[in-house]
Specification:
carbohydrate:proton symporter activity, single chain, 14 helices, mainly alpha, 81% helix, transmembrane helix
């Protein structure tokens, strides 16, 4: 039996059967208990802000957006909307390498501010020039540049951290379910974005960008005052942030289970083996 499964069994009682309906319900309910609710909130809201930053609205409706800001022709709109994916990919690469050195909170805060400013700039340009884009080509391409700036900021902040942070705040016994719930939040908000963006764009393209700007602005305060820094942080330190001992309890249970399964002795033997052979 896997150590994670034994952890769940230990937490919910020796007689609980892993995978049974009762134990599964109890495991899911744990996420909303006082012990884990703050961590669950972090995972769910992380994905809310990731989606309402507006990234998928740009990916899904890139050609429509380019048409709204005055760019005509299929080749131009496909080039610009395809460039969104390329810029995001290029921005993610250095972040993956340096994310532990830079930290989660600084990247989220910087990304929130940059994305909000980019959205507001696009909104102002659309409101000012949407009635006569052909006479304001510079304004149109400035809006496109802001789309690229937004995409780069997203790729260096909410893009990768949205998937990293939920897995870091949950202890091992509930990590799989906690991350699953965060992923469900991601897809639910993704669905909402796909549903409301065409309506918002038809009603007011400028207001659409203001909405995303406000979401990014709210994300700044959330990442500043709510999100804990999890880069290079131990389970004990994360427990201290949340005022809980869940991670330490999991670690103790894990060591106990490893002793029961003989894994501790096996690790010791493997560690001592080479030196013993050398001495012989």
């Amino acid at each position: 039996m896997r150590v994670e499964a034994r952890l769940v069994e230990k937490i919910f009682g020796e007689t609980a059967k892993q995978g049974s309906f009762r134990s599964e319900v109890r495991a899911w309910r744990q996420l909303f208990s006082k012990k884990y609710i703050n961590r669950t909130f972090i995972g769910i809201v992380m994905m809310f802000f990731q989606q309402w930053s507006g990234i998928n609205a740009l990916l899904y409706y890139g050609p429509t957006l380019m048409h709204e800001i005055g760019l005509q022709g299929d080749s131009i709109t496909l080039l610009v909307s395809g460039g969104i994916g390329i810029v995001q990919f290029l921005a993610v690469l250095p972040t993956i390498i340096f994310i532990d050195r830079l930290g989660r909170k600084p990247l989220l805060r910087w990304g929130s501010v940059t994305m909000s400013v980019a959205h507001l700039t696009i909104s102002l340009l659309v409101r000012q020039f949407e009635s006569d884009w052909p006479s304001h080509v510079v304004g149109a391409w400035t809006a496109v540049a802001c789309v690229y700036i937004f995409t780069a900021a997203y790729g260096m902040s909410y893009g990768p951290i949205g998937w990293i942070l939920p897995s870091e705040v949950f202890p091992q016994s509930v990590r799989s379910k906690g991350v699953s719930l965060a992923t469900a939040s991601n897809w639910f908000n993704n669905f909402l974005i796909g549903l409301v963006t065409p309506v918002m764009m038809e009603f007011s393209p400028s207001l659409t960008f203001v909405t995303f700007a406000l979401a990014c602005f709210m994300g700044y305060f959330w990442s500043t005052y709510v999100v804990p820094e999890t880069a290079n942080v131990s389970l004990e330190e994360i427990d201290a942030v949340f005022g809980s001992s869940a991670g330490q309890e999991d670690a103790e249970l894990k060591r106990e289970i490893e002793r029961e399964l003989g894994l501790r002795d096996l690790i010791t033997e493997l560690a001592d083996g080479p030196s013993s052979s050398f001495e012989a």
